[in-house]
Specification:
The complex is a heterotrimer of chains A (272), B (218) and C (239). Chain A has 272 residues and is of the alpha/beta class. Chain A has helices at residues 2-25, 33-39, 65-77, 91-96, 111-114, 156-163, 177-185, 196-205, 233-248, 251-260, and strands at residues 41-47, 54-56, 62-64, 80-86, 102-107, 117-119, 124-133, 148-152, 170-174, 191-195, 211-213, 221-229. Chain A contains 10 helices and 12 strands. Chain A is globular, with a radius of gyration of 21 Å. Chain B starts with 6 loop residues before the first helix and ends in a 9-residue tail after the last helix. With 218 residues, chain B is an all-alpha fold. The relative contact order of chain B is 0.16. Chain B is built from 8 helices and no strands. Chain B is elongated and about 70 Å long. Chain C has helices at 8-12, 14-48, 51-65, 69-79, 89-114, 118-126, 131-161, 173-184, 187-216, 227-234. Chain C is globular, with a radius of gyration of 21 Å. The chains are: A alpha/beta (272), B mainly alpha (218), C mainly alpha (239). At the B-C interface, helix 2, helix 3, helix 4, helix 6 and helix 7 of B face helix 3, helix 4, helix 7, helix 9 and helix 10 of C.
Amino acid sequence: MNWFSKLRSAALATTFAVTAATLVAVPAKAQTLNEITEKGKVTIGVLTGIPPYDTVDASGKTAGFLVDLANDVAKNLGVKAEIVPVNNASRAAALESGRVDMLIAHMTATPERARTFLMTNPYGAYEMRFVARKDMPLKKLDDLAGKRVSVPKGSTQDAAVSGFGIKGLEVVRFDDDALAMQALISGQVDATAAVAAVANDVIKKSNLADIEVKSDVPIFTLYWSMAVRKNATELHHWLNNYIYYSEVSGSLGTLHQKWVGIPIPGGKLPTF
Amino acid sequence: MIRSFGWESVEFLIRGAGWTLLLSFMTFVIGGCFALIFALLRTLGPKPVRLAIAGFIQLVQATPLLIIVFLSFYGLSFVGLHFPPMVGAGLSLAVYTTVFLGDIWRGCIEAIPRQQWEAADALALTRMQQLRYVILPQAFKISLGPTVGFMVQIVKNTSVVALIGFVELTRAGQLLNNMTFQPFHVFLTVAAIYFAICYPMSFLSERLKGNRHVRPAH
Amino acid sequence: MAYQMNFAPVMALAPQLFEGAFNTLILSGQSIVAGIAIGVVGAVGRTEGPRWLDRAIGAYVELFRNTPLLVQLFLIFFGLPYIGLRLSANAAAIIAVALNLGAYSTEILRAGLQAIPRTQIEAGLALGMSRLQVVRYVVIVPALRIIYPALTGQLTLTLLGSSIASAISATELTAAGARIESTTFRSLETFLCVAVIYIAMTFTFRFIYWLIGLLLFRRKAPPKPSLIADISEISRVGV
């Protein structure tokens, strides 16, 4: 036993020392505009799998609001776009590790997240609404007492619903928005805190006659930011500029209308 | 685009299955090369090397595949190596394959009786010749069944690379379900495709292992 | 600028990780008890039962061993409601992992049972041992000894495989990690912590298995089966 445990602890220590050393020693790439131009392409992590914001056709090709937006960003940078599909679990790692230069992945700029990445001015917004069966009364937040509510894991919906402090409310967390919605449709939860546009799209396309977006409960509008690494300040500035210009020139609104079928919720996009 | 489950959906899934197969093959080839090196070094290498490899194997075998793939895929990016998703996914799955297959193959090499080495030595074969002509051919025969059996695990486990944005069969199923919300149809079809790929291999594996249940009753 | 590891935001949420680790233990513990029970019934059914039972159990085993656990989870959790069966996430996870383990352990245990020749049982009876003694000393302990590496290996894989249940909102360690990662965006730090906890749990269990093995098999051991049989058994594990 003795030699065995010694061997294991030694191996453990060595491996972690080596891992840590490699990770600390390697510089993260500073992304200046020049570097991107020289490289000739910008690698953009895009969230996929959340219709109507994006769709996949039978050949497996992704298209959608975020993909078009990413391509437009690249076009305005004067380089080629390399689109890397990411999901909720991998988006932060993709950026942090240098796999992508930036993320356009439905991220709300919370102060906590902004400690890790630079978050741009919002390029879009969503209304968070509760979605539930028609026969479930939901006039005020307290009606959710004792109910099970699904949310995407670690999302702003998660933070909001967990933070309401409603007695007996159970938050059920899924990998993404669609799975949270699926849980409602399968009857695993009583309600889901969803992006209104996503919920409306699902209800319409799948003919879910007994499910509705609840409009009485006051709920807020949240904004989505792009993200770059902490040291990419120049790119961050440029993106803010790009977002401002696409908003005033109307191209951002047109793109949103094209894919989601409605104007960007919440009126004029805020800046910070 | 796809609205409800139909022929187009099946086509989409089969395309995903193609990627699963390709990725499994790549993983097996890359992982297999390293596994062979690991197996040889662990049986024949100097003691520190043997211990280091044993330690590495112990560690990786104690971590969920999901976490291994995550850490190795993004770990590669951290050290500045960027691969297309396909290659990255293959490499990170290869870490897992190396460790398990290396262990299986080491067992196969160690299963060759000591006398075989001694006999080969007596014939004045060099170490490499002993391996090449005496040990490995016999070990190879023993390893066939377990190896094919492990390939089933590889095929099934490629499903975790959905995490790093690679669209193989399982991720295709998820995307399809996000569009159709018909999980029963979607995942039953996905399961059926996996079964169609894996069952023949499982069957072959058992055949190759032969009648191992029959043991001398001394 | 070097990449700065910063564990502080993750450490602040460490209680969530420990709660998740605890839930992983509960989840896999329940699955293991249920899965081994299925395995025992399955193995005895296959070796002692009528031919149709052998076939039926064989079909179950092949279905579960040749499809990924994640797909099984999705089918049980999201698919079963369509035929009127609604389960909580943790219940669905336990059932899926247990059924999966049941399939693998059926085959592992069966291999153990078949390794004990009938003549040995008869010999035990001839020596005047009671049926119970024969079952214990001639069948179970020697059979267990043969399959012990494969069985404990499978249990480790079950513990690690339960991480997949995070996809259907089970509240275990990987899910806790994913949530912290999403809140703080400190992905590498979070998953390193998660990995360390899994490794610690696995090593603890391996140590426990080793102790149990020592207690169970300390008596003069039956002849060790050949290494080839060993490899063949070990290669039967999986998720």
